[in-house]
Design a protein that fits this description.
Order of helices and strands: HEEHEEEEHEEEE
Strand content: 25-35%
Oligomer: single chain
Structural class: alpha+beta
Radius of gyration: 23 Å
CATH superfamily: Sortase
CATH architecture: Beta Barrel
Number of strands: 10
CATH class: Mainly Beta
Largest sheet: 8 strands, mixed, barrel
Length: 240
């Protein structure tokens, strides 16, 4: 009887231990879930406030408003410009750190956020290089560079343009190629025909000139990186 009692007590102890462990896991998972929701909401609110506060209204053409980068740089001098792509959620400031890790998990205020920022490769010099590379996370909330998947899947058609706003210019780039690479592949600052075969491009722009914009994010499973190449097609000066 004593052995049976000890056996029952042992089983009860194990069951209680498992129950407590499950409760702890549930609490931690719930905390992470709601913490991530809070960070995502904070991130969305932050950039919506920036859009509301720093948009310059073009009185001639209200559909062509743009962000005042000069004033935005007063918030953070690392701001290099603003990127937007029509029919996507991509509408963010572009930052640049001294390395490619700093803004992986920091927002424009340099505060921690799992969404990170859209940021330019630390090796680039504004938008004057042969190839300007911009990175961003692929979030499951459709934030940051998540909508690049729509571009690589062809959901936006074969003519997609990217608008970059700097302190004094608005630059338009037309996408000419998309593909996947290994996460360990380093993107070059010089794009030429020896680097990439353009014959399989699904986009109407399929030539390389002296100014290319490259967007990069991980794909949905994180095993590959999405690469989007766009060629500079138009540039106009802004009146500040």
């Amino acid at each position: 009887m004593a052995k049976l009692k000890l056996k029952k007590e042992y089983k009860l102890f194990i069951l209680n231990f498992i129950l407590i462990l499950l409760i702890i896991i549930f609490i931690l998972s719930s905390y992470n879930y709601f913490h991530n929701l809070f960070e995502d909401k904070k991130n969305n609110n932050l950039y919506q406030e920036i859009i509301n506060d720093y948009t310059i209204i073009n009185e001639i053409d209200n559909s062509n408003d743009y962000i005042d980068i000069k004033k935005l740089k007063e918030v953070n001098s690392d701001v290099k410009g603003w990127i937007s792509i029509t029919n996507t959620n991509i509408n963010y400031p572009i930052l640049q750190g001294s390395n490619n890790n700093y803004y992986l998990n920091r927002d424009i205020n340099k505060e921690y956020n799992r969404n990170g920022s859209i940021f330019m490769d630390y090796r680039n010099h504004e938008f004057n290089d042969n190839n300007t590379i911009i990175y961003g996370h692929n979030m499951n909330t459709d934030a940051m560079f998540s909508d690049l998947i729509k571009i690589i899947n062809g959901n936006l058609g074969n003519k997609v343009s990217i608008k970059i706003t700097t302190i004094d210019k608005e630059i338009t780039y037309d996408i000419y190629k998309t593909y996947l690479v290994s996460p360990t592949d380093e993107l070059p600052l010089d794009i030429n025909k020896n680097n990439y075969d353009l014959s399989s491009s699904n986009y109407i722009y399929n030539k390389i000139e002296d100014k290319t914009l490259t967007l990069s994010t991980c794909n949905n499973n994180g095993k590959k990186r999405i690469i989007v190449h766009a060629i500079k097609s138009q540039e106009k000066n802004l009146v500040n």
